[in-house]
């Protein structure tokens, strides 16, 4: 059986939803700058974080992985119906949860949102596992994606318990205590595993590099999973803080190996010129080290102080607004143009070379977006450490402008019409 491309009606809604969610998250950020001068467990910060983690990062990755899993495994998607259900459940659940956090109402809205998100993720996991297990080409990239999906489900299940714990005391301690467990299962288990698995496939492909190493991928895979399992065991066992250096060292080792993999792919590339989206994606790989360094600083910092609270906020900001977002901003304009072009080329005979995937979006808009975004990111991060409202306000406005430029370019792609002959 020849693998077929996932229908656009499955993939594009995820991309569109994620793009709009990015604008929503940046708008919430502009309205919440004052919250970033206080404690990190603030309703508005929680709303912004979940809007970025779920509405932006997760929805974009879900859409991309529905497209990529059949390509990577050379097999059809397990169930198109489950894919549609996963979209609609998440699309309904995420706004409910974000709204609940913003007004800090952990009643019906939060609980309904959390349940819908878990329904969505469960459908996604079944689809990923089903697609992988019945495929003809089970490789490490697909295994990374399956493992990441399973960690995502564990993350959302813990999140569901935390939501109900606010009003029903279903856990032995308060929800703030379990926040670290919930967050790091998602960051390392979902985002890191998925980014490594997909990145080690796409980056060499976009660079036209022949480099690949299944052995190195296995090492990275087991280092990440072993480190994450060790972290969960240490957390549940209430181990002393010093013990956490063990899983952090394991994650740092995996990230170093991931960086080495991408460096080898870059060195052995056939295409010597690198376009801006790939450059931004490569920058995100360098930024992968920043959260680890901040985490080590947090463990080394004694007691609770304003400086340590700033490190907590910077840690989350660098992860969601730096590492994850810079990668997605770059990869979107390497994957989405091809998805649209690949479908439209069957609908028309293209008579113009300018109709190729790389010419379906505005490179000037992309370059402007990248510049404005990285400037806004740097200014806002400075504001977190200095607690200067002027820096936070300026940075948030720049990030909002960048998100609008991103949406304009995505809209341009969505509205593209091929030239008929």
Structure overview:
The protein is mostly helical. It has a domain at 1-138. It contains 13 helices and no strands. It has helices at residues 8-31, 43-73, 80-103, 108-133, 140-168, 179-206, 214-236, 245-267, 276-287, 289-300, 306-344, 363-386, 389-414. The longest helix is centred in the C-terminal third of the chain and has 39 residues, at 306-344. The chain is globular. The two termini are 33 Å apart. This is Cytochrome C oxidase subunit I.
Structural class: mainly alpha
Strand count, sense and barrel status of the largest sheet are: none
Report the uncertain regions. Answer: 348-352
Order of helices and strands: HHHHHHHHHHHHH
The helix content, as a percent range, equals over 70%
Quaternary organisation of the protein chains: single chain
Kindly list the characteristics that best describe this protein.
421 residues; mainly alpha; membrane; Cytochrome C oxidase subunit I; transmembrane helix
Q: Which helices and strands occur, and which strands form pairs?
A:
Elements: H1 8-31, H2 43-73, H3 80-103, H4 108-133, H5 140-168, H6 179-206, H7 214-236, H8 245-267, H9 276-287, H10 289-300, H11 306-344, H12 363-386, H13 389-414
